[in-house]
Specification:
The complex is a heterodimer. Chain A is an alpha+beta fold. Among the domains of chain A are: 3-199, Aldehyde ferredoxin oxidoreductase, N-terminal domain (Aldehyde Ferredoxin Oxidoreductase,  A, domain 1, 4-Layer Sandwich), CATH 3.60.9.10; 236-402, Aldehyde Ferredoxin Oxidoreductase Protein, subunit A, domain 2 (Orthogonal Bundle), CATH 1.10.569.10. Helix content of chain A is 40%, strand content 15%. In chain A, strands 2-1-6-3-4-5 form a six-stranded mixed β-sheet. A six-stranded mixed β-sheet of chain A has the order 8-7-12-9-10-11. Mean pLDDT of chain A is 94; it is low at 444-449. Chain B is α+β, with helices and mostly antiparallel strands. The termini of chain B are far apart. Mean pLDDT of chain B is 75; it is low at 84-109. The chains are: A alpha+beta, B alpha+beta. Bound molecules: iron/sulfur cluster.
């Protein structure tokens, strides 16, 4: 990947530049955050013309390395006001990489709705007037007919309306939808009047591997070891909803707007129930890959009783937050909520948390599963409550006078209660992205197998380790799930360094992965500092340290000094 | 006079599947003797393949299989093969290590 494609929407121009030396060897989140730091004034209005959207495949994209196709989408977040990277699977990253592009930078504002088509050496702009207002499913159906074999990146009605929990949608090779969901970047692309970006990699130069033999050997070692790891079978059979039962058993499953850690209906929405539904229904599939070369296949195809696809890629976070956290024990209702969010182009985490808050305010009855999708769909008709939840949990809580708002830096927590998982709590508090479990879901260092998730001590070290590790994984473009076995085995991490060395043709030190990740986080932190964020923003909402979790009575009691140590040097 | 207290035992993931395939419930009530019984003995009684068990939750905390279960405890067997970070996160990693150091031989199947 040797070039940067810059698209100016205001002038309807594009330029292909050789990648500057400063960005060489970078990819994914690291490259996206470096470009944003260099080009976006930290105090700028995220919805204004000076913000940009970066689309960056990872360093290993489109190689034979497993699970390499996460697309990093970056910009300044209108939800948090911080720098933002949200990533998604699908086909786009690998196609962008095969065009030889390290990053696409979208800047300026179009005066009318536009579809941007990127081909080898050519960018064209087409009116999207007939697509504007359409949901993502309908828009993708039309676009895939017009541009067969391409990858599509789209914005739904929520992004068009500037709602701050809007996602950017990326299609898989079989045109299912995935979301770069967090932080409202769909609203940024919508404000630029971009409905779709089409990636056609026909005739592209392909990718370059500096040392193909070495790359193949090291890559095969990683692949074999991942495939042997026991977690692969679990993810394939049950998806991430497997965690519902386990988190419930621990007493840390977000329930009733984070007032409890156990949900009576957990068995009805857990991975085991989920697998049963998928096993019984026509056209359903328990294992599905969202990108070429996925060897884990944690996604699934979830159908209704008639065999019609409701959604694909239903995750623990959505099941927990739209399920237990809203006291909903109906998997089909949760799946329909997931579909509605994909269609409108919304982050299921922020919107489900917002609905939990609206339930606490008495605006929606607890446990009303049918209301989940109904509220989201009401955004089409600009219903007030729909628009409110579309703007995320913080906006909803403030507007409805709720004091227990489970967000950090304006972004909603996932379904892991931080009073039980205190390392994850530290990540929620201190990550550069606002509350985001994918930045460091409290995995202790392999050198620290005696990790106690409930102790307030030492969680800053665990979280700092994880935040660096996952920033590196996001920069490689690797799917987080395939990266997990590497945490079990230090020799796998060395193979990963060997893979990157062979790809780039430079000798990298053994500590490369962690050092690279740390520097990505620090650069992002610097942007946030310039945007006005400081230690006072690295805190969980008060109620987590004041209200005892039921059952068990835990509090989030990690000391503020420990939170401040995560990025102390 | 001794009163019999029943203990609820849950089985997750692959263990849940194994029970279902055998036509058995994945959540059962068992009676534990007053002096308690080791989790590995309970697993044997339930005919759960030990190499497929990562750890056991007892009253919301993860333990290795030599942990003694008392009457009235809340028990859940956790399979191998749940997402990696969470194995550490749930405290299962350490418990699993203890198991490995003791007796478990991991099946290659
Ligand atoms: S493991 Fe899941 S999220 Fe990752 S690439 Fe495969 S299907 Fe996509």
């Amino acid at each position: 990947m040797t070039r940067i494609l810059r698209i100016n929407l205001t002038r309807k121009e594009s330029s292909w530049d050789v990648i500057p030396e400063a960005y060489s060897g970078m990819g994914g989140r690291g490259l996206s955050s470096a470009i944003i730091s260099a080009e976006v004034p930290a105090m700028t209005d995220a919805m204004g013309p000076d913000n940009i959207i970066v689309l960056a495949p990872g360093i290993l994209a489109a190689t034979t390395f497993p699970n390499n196709g996460r697309l990093s989408v970056g910009g300044k977040s209108p939800l948090t006001g911080t720098i933002k990277e949200a990533n998604a699977g699908g086909a786009a990253a690998q196609k962008i990489a095969r065009l030889g592009i390290a990053a696409v930078i979208i800047q300026g504002v179009s005066t009318e709705p536009v579809t941007v088509v990127i081909k080898n050496d050519e960018v064209t702009f087409h009116s999207a007037a007939s697509l504007w207002g359409k949901g993502n499913f309908a828009a993708v159906d039309l676009l895939k007919e017009e541009y067969p074999g391409t990858a599509l990146i789209t914005v739904g009605p929520a992004g068009e309306k500037g709602l701050k929990a809007s996602a950017i949608i990326v299609t898989t090779n079989d045109y299912h939808l995935r979301a770069a969901a967090r932080g409202g970047l769909g609203a940024v692309l919508g404000a630029k009047k971009v409905k779709a970006v089409v990636i056609d990699d026909t005739g592209g130069p392909g990718i370059v591997i500096a040392e193909p033999g070495k790359f193949k050997d090291a890559s095969k070692k990683v692949t074999d070891l991942i495939l042997k790891h026991p977690l692969i079978g679990g993810l394939r059979a049950f998806g991430t909803p497997l965690l519902v039962g386990l988190m419930n058993e621990m007493g840390g499953l977000a329930t009733k707007n984070f007032s409890r850690g156990k949900f009576e209906g957990a068995e009805k929405i857990g991975g085991e129930a989920f697998a049963k539904v998928l096993g019984e229904r026509k056209n359903a599939a328990a294992a599905h890959g969202c990108m070429r070369g996925c060897i884990v296949q944690c996604s699934q195809i979830y159908t209704d009783e008639q065999g019609e696809v409701i959604t694909t890629g239903l995750e623990f976070e959505t099941v927990g937050l739209a399920g237990s956290n809203c006291e909903v024990d109906d998997l089909d209702a949760i799946a329909r909520f997931d579909r509605a969010c994909d269609d409108l182009g919304l982050d299921t985490i922020d919107v489900a948390c917002a609905i939990g808050v609206a339930m606490e305010a008495g605006r929606i009855p607890w446990g009303d599963g049918e209301k989940l999708a109904e509220v989201v769909k009401s955004i089409y008709t600009e219903d007030q409550l729909g628009l409110l939840v579309g703007n995320g949990c913080t906006a909803t809580g403030k507007a409805l006078g709720v004091t227990r708002i489970p967000t950090v830096k304006g972004q909603a927590l996932s379904a892991y209660d931080p009073r039980i998982l205190k390392g994850t709590g530290v990540t929620y508090a201190t990550s550069t992205m606002g509350a985001d479990h994918t930045c460091g879901n409290a995995i202790p260092s392999p050198a620290n197998p005696g990790y106690d998730a409930s102790s307030p001590k030492g969680q800053n070290e665990i979280s700092a380790f994880l935040q660096s590790y996952f920033a590196a994984i996001d920069s490689l473009g690797m799917c987080l799930f395939a990266s997990l076995p590497l945490l079990d085995a230090p020799d796998l991490q060395q193979h990963l360094v060997d893979v990157v060395s062979a790809k780039l043709g430079i000798e990298l030190p053994p500590g490369y992965v962690m050092e690279m990740g740390r520097s990505v986080c620090c650069q992002e932190r610097e942007f946030n500092k310039l945007a006005g964020f400081g230690p006072k923003d690295d805190r969980l909402p008060d109620f987590f340290s004041k209200e005892r979790l039921i059952p068990g009575g835990s509090l989030f009691d990690v000391a503020d000094e420990d939170l401040d140590k995560v990025y102390a040097d | 006079m001794t009163t019999q207290t029943t203990t609820t035992v849950r089985m997750f993931g692959a263990l849940h599947t194994i029970r279902r395939e055998r036509g058995l419930e994945p959540t059962v009530e068992v009676s534990i003797p007053p002096g308690g019984c080791a989790a590995c003995d309970l697993a044997r009684e339930l005919d759960l393949p030990r190499e497929k068990i990562e750890a056991v939750f007892v009253n919301h905390l993860a333990y290795s299989l030599d942990h003694v279960i008392q009457p009235g405890d809340r028990v859940a067997f956790v399979p191998t093969g749940i997402p990696g970070p969470h194995r550490f996160l749930l405290g299962i990693y350490g418990a699993g290590l203890e198991n490995k150091n003791q007796t478990i031989s991991v099946s290659s199947a």
